[in-house]
Write a structure and sequence with these properties.
The complex is a heterodimer of chains A (about 600) and B (about 300).
Chain A lengths: L3 H15 L4 H25 L6 H22 L6 H17 L6 H19 L9 H24 L7 H16 L7 H8 L2 H23 L5 H24 L4 H28 L3 H36 L10 H4 L1 H14 L6 H17 L4 H32 L15 H32 L5 H39 L3 E3 L17 H11 L1 H4 L2 E5 L10 E5 L3 H22 L6 H21 L1
Antiparallel strand pairs in A: 2-3
Chain B lengths: L1 H13 L2 H14 L8 H10 L4 E3 L4 H19 L15 H21 L4 H32 L4 H6 L5 H4 L1 H18 L18 H4 L5 H26 L7 H25 L8 H22 L4
The chains are: A mainly alpha (about 600), B mainly alpha (about 300).
């Protein structure tokens, strides 16, 4: 019963695959299947809620899957075989719905592997494009490496005498590869831009959370809570700050969003870390705010990042590019998408009056209750968390100002042709935004339910405090809307009386012919900050300076490739390749050499056995 | 509650006058007579009566930005213990809502600037974004500092519930915090040496560059909002340094108001004494402010001036 939604999705996936030859039919079956399975999922949750954290990790999938499915209908038109897309889309959704409900590790591992492979097909969907090969390959490698580590984790759980630290580290790394922890995040900035936008939305909003869920359900039970807390807190601090600094240095819109996902998973880990630390030091307020912060932020991230990725998909369909520096002025031609994107981006920067703020407020309060607690360790953790959160928030404002400003505002820079937006694409975005507004105002009422789900007794006073704060936060969000309306009305009144409104070109300080080429591009907006952080970002610049009195040509290019890939993984893989090359000599293809190797090995083993 | 309302009304009325004070001080140093104290109010009323010109490049964001910024600043003001009276709207965690309302105002101004497609406004937006990262970090460290001193996360208690002896117990870190907050004030309110609101050389401006294209009532909202922001930061600075727990409401009102005006005088003196920094030097000054606040926090934690 409890698996009914996953079952329906899986059946719909298989059916769509069977309808491969008839694209239209596959589309109908696929979309209907997703919506049916999500309905079944919601009904199951309402009638017989599964206990514990699993429900919380199902919610993002349940919210995002139907929206992404509706968006896909328009997105995949003319992009390959719809049967294959819908088949694997539904199969991925099925695995994602099933995972939170599985309590045994072995079936979990099997479904986990299936999820990786199904989603790999989705990432590869537009397989004819050349630039897709590398990202898809990296994604497959990351999935398989994670799977292997988890298999090792499973195998080691039966063997005694293994060092505990190593055992848990292997589990953390296996799940961390999916969650996008720092250093393990390399697949996100590659796979997200390559995958179709609705798939990126699901992967970023829902799938990476599952990595965190795996850690919470399978790795952490049995570990000292203080150790868990510190690990997650430190990983979260590095991930969120590093992620967002790389986010604002990117030119590809979906890469910005991918790095922002690394940031947000970092923020969620920080919140969970605060919860564990609160538990370790018996600080009830910290536990409550930590739980609420992580849950709200998971939901908010799903809603807002979903909107942003769907918006990026719309932009890609309208302009055919994702390069922020080439776009501009899209707000006038795709107004609904632009407005949704702007609202969601402001929300995801953690600013009120949107729901991103509610989550961040809770995490801040967890940190501040640590600061005020008087216990040295908690105070230190709280200061670190709050400081990182505020710097992350400020950098997120930069990253999203750049994304909005470069893509939607101003005048078109290079891409002047733009197609109309399609309701199939913007209606899901509007729905997600509506849900996020509801999330703000329902937060005071959902808070006690969330705490009850996690089932930690003895937190009643702290919960009551949190409810009150959420109520205040929601009322001030409402007050912001009211005040804005009042001031707008006031301005309308004043302008009607003044009655000399006109429109004209932008004042460009007396310059006679302002053109779009003079506009600040996305890269120009963040150039100051990128310089400030350059020792961390290591931006690659290619300058062709103007020469002579009458320079004929000059050019400037810059890109900010992933730091961990350049300075950690590339050397590691280079070393591995070097070793493999040397070993490769043995693999000569001559049978007698192989026999010789085997004989030598056999003799060596015999000698070893005799000696020991 | 009544006293707080009275203080709020007073703040709303007097906020633009702070600019008059600054200009008077600057005029005094320059040996001029200077514009009248109420000049900003006159400007605002004049602008309110005018029409607006909207650029053909801009969209609803440009029209919404001044409105949203003003609303955000007004809401931020509601949490402050103006005149050392507890705000009736305060709650645990309002310090963060306060910080983020300022952030909301900032992103709206930046987006409004980018919406005009003007290269100058882009320039201003880029600089504002760069400086905001550091000044927001400093502001948060200050909040942590206050939270440790007061064991609370509510601005009322953080600013006015620290007892009267915090200068005795933690004088060095209080001094450092005041310096850091003054640096943040100069940045956030766009004063010399970070930004020069007087020049109309577009290349050297930050805030003024971002609002080049606003006119009429929109510009009036922006000017008024700038006044509110200056009042907000001066009020925090006053409440940070003055232990006023035992004052009667009326004398507290007097202390707060004169504190704000005194801050304006200080800003005027600073502006008269020094020139604006080169843009490359401003981040260094901001980083300096951040480090000073960090040192204040570290001193407070080490010296044990903690409840």
């Amino acid at each position: 019963m409890i698996f009914s939604s996953a079952g329906i999705a899986a059946a719909a996936g298989v059916l769509s695959l069977l309808c491969c030859r008839r694209g239209g039919l596959a589309g109908v079956v696929g979309l209907a299947g997703t919506i049916l399975s999500v309905t079944a999922g919601i009904v199951t949750l309402c009638t017989s809620p599964p206990n514990g954290v699993s429900l919380l990790f199902m919610l993002p999938t349940l919210i995002l899957a139907p929206m992404a499915a509706i968006h896909s209908r328009a997105y995949i038109k003319g992009h390959g075989n719809p049967g294959i897309y819908w088949g694997f889309f539904n199969l991925t959704v099925a695995t994602m719905l099933a995972l939170p409900l599985i309590k045994e590790f072995l079936p979990f591992l099997i479904v986990w592997e299936l999820m990786g492979i199904f989603s790999f097909v989705l990432v590869m969907f537009n397989y004819k494009a050349d630039e897709l090969k590398r990202p898809a390959w990296i994604y497959l490698l990351a999935c398989e490496a994670g799977g292997l580590l988890l298999m090792l984790f499973y195998a080691l759980s039966f063997k005694s005498g293994v060092s505990q630290e190593l055992f848990y580290a292997i589990g953390m790394a296996g799940f961390g590869l999916k969650a996008g922890f720092p250093l393990l995040h390399i697949w996100l900035p590659e796979a997200h831009p390559a995958a179709p936008a609705p798939v990126s939305a699901i992967m970023s909003g829902a799938m990476i959370n599952l990595g965190l869920m795996g850690i919470l359900v399978f790795v952490f039970p049995g570990v000292d809570p203080a150790l868990c807390g510190w690990t997650l807190l430190i990983l979260g601090c590095i991930g969120s700050l590093g992620g967002i600094v790389f986010a604002f240095a990117q030119d590809n819109l979906k890469r910005v969003l991918a790095y922002s996902s690394i940031e947000n998973i970092g923020i969620i880990s920080m919140a969970v870390g605060c919860t564990f630390l609160g538990g370790a030091f018996n600080n009830n307020t910290m536990i409550v705010f930590g739980i609420l912060g992580s849950v709200f932020h998971i939901i908010n991230h799903a809603l807002l990042k979903g909107t942003l990725f769907l918006g990026a998909g719309q932009v890609f369909c309208a302009t055919g590019t994702l390069s922020i520096d080439k776009m501009g002025g899209l707000m006038k031609r795709t107004p609904v998408t632009g407005s949704c994107f702007t609202a969601a981006a402001v929300g995801l920067s953690g600013l009120p009056p949107f729901n991103g703020f509610i989550g961040e407020l809770m995490i801040y309060l967890a940190a501040f209750s640590g600061i005020c607690s008087g216990i040295v360790q908690l105070r230190f953790a709280g200061i670190a968390a709050a400081l990182v959160l505020s710097l992350t928030g400020a950098c997120a404002v930069v990253a999203f100002s750049k994304a909005i400003g470069g893509t939607f505002l101003g005048e078109p820079r290079k891409i002047t042709e733009c197609q109309k937006e399609s309701p199939w694409m913007y209606v899901p975005m509007l729905c997600l935004l509506l849900l996020s507004v509801i999330a703000v105002f329902s937060a005071p009422f959902t808070a006690p339910a969330i705490i009850k789900l996690v089932k930690t007794p003895g937190l009643d006073t702290a919960v009551a405090g949190a409810e009150k704060i959420l109520f205040y936060a929601a009322s001030f969000s409402a007050l912001f809307y009211i005040l804005c309306t009042l001031i707008l009305l006031c301005r309308r009144f004043l302008l009607v009386r003044g009655a000399e409104n006109e429109s004209g070109p932008t004042w460009d300080c007396g310059y006679a012919k302002p053109s779009a080429r003079m506009e600040y591009t996305g890269s120009a907006i963040i150039q100051n900050l990128a310089d400030l952080f350059n020792s961390f970002l290591q931006i690659r610049r290619k300058v062709d300076e103007p020469q002579g009195l009458f320079p004929s040509k000059a050019s400037f290019e810059w890109e900010s490739p992933d730091g961990s890939e350049r300075f950690f993984w590339a050397p590691v893989f280079k070393f591995a390749a070097g070793v493999s090359d040397k070993v490769h000599k043995f693999q000569s293809g001559y049978l007698h050499v192989y026999v010789l190797i085997m004989t030598v090995a056999l003799i060596a083993m015999v000698i070893w056995a005799i000696v020991s | 509650m009544m006293y707080w309302l009275l203080n709020l009304v007073l703040a709303l009325l007097l906020a633009p006058v702070l600019f008059g004070v600054i200009n008077k001080v600057k005029a005094f140093f320059a040996g001029r007579k200077g514009p009248r104290l109420m000049q900003t109010w006159y400007d605002i009323f004049k602008l309110l009566r005018k029409g607006s010109v909207y650029s053909t490049s801009s969209t609803w964001i440009f029209k919404f930005a001044p409105v949203g910024t003003l609303a955000a600043l007004f809401i931020a003001m509601l949490f402050l213990p103006l005149g050392f009276c507890s705000s009736p709207l305060g709650f645990q965690g309002d310090a963060l809502l306060f910080l983020y309302m300022l952030g909301l105002g900032r992103i709206l101004t930046v987006l409004g600037a980018l919406d005009t497609a003007s290269s100058f406004e882009g320039m201003g937006a880029a600089r504002e974004l760069q400086f905001s990262v550091v000044s927001e970090g400093t502001m948060l460290l200050l909040l942590i500092f206050l939270a440790i001193q007061s064991s609370s996360c509510e601005l009322n208690t953080m600013l006015c519930g620290r007892g009267n002896s915090f200068w005795m117990s933690a004088a060095p870190s209080m001094l450092l915090s005041a310096v850091a907050l003054y640096v943040v004030l100069l940045t956030e309110c766009c004063r010399v040496p970070v930004d020069d609101p007087e020049t109309h050389l577009e290349l050297t401006m930050i805030h003024e560059a971002m609002i080049l294209d606003n006119s009429g009532p929109d510009l009036a909202f922006i000017h008024y909002g700038a006044g509110l922001k200056l009042w907000i930061f001066s009020a925090i600075l006053t409440a940070l340094v003055v232990p006023a727990d035992l004052l009667s409401p009326w004398s507290a009102l007097l202390v707060m108001t004169s504190g704000c005006f005194l801050t304006a005088v200080f800003v005027g003196i600073t502006e008269s004494m020094m020139a604006r920094y080169r843009f490359l030097k401003v981040p260094q000054m901001l980083m300096g402010g951040f480090c000073v606040e960090f040192a204040a926090l570290a001193l407070l934690l080490i010296s044990g001036g903690v409840k």
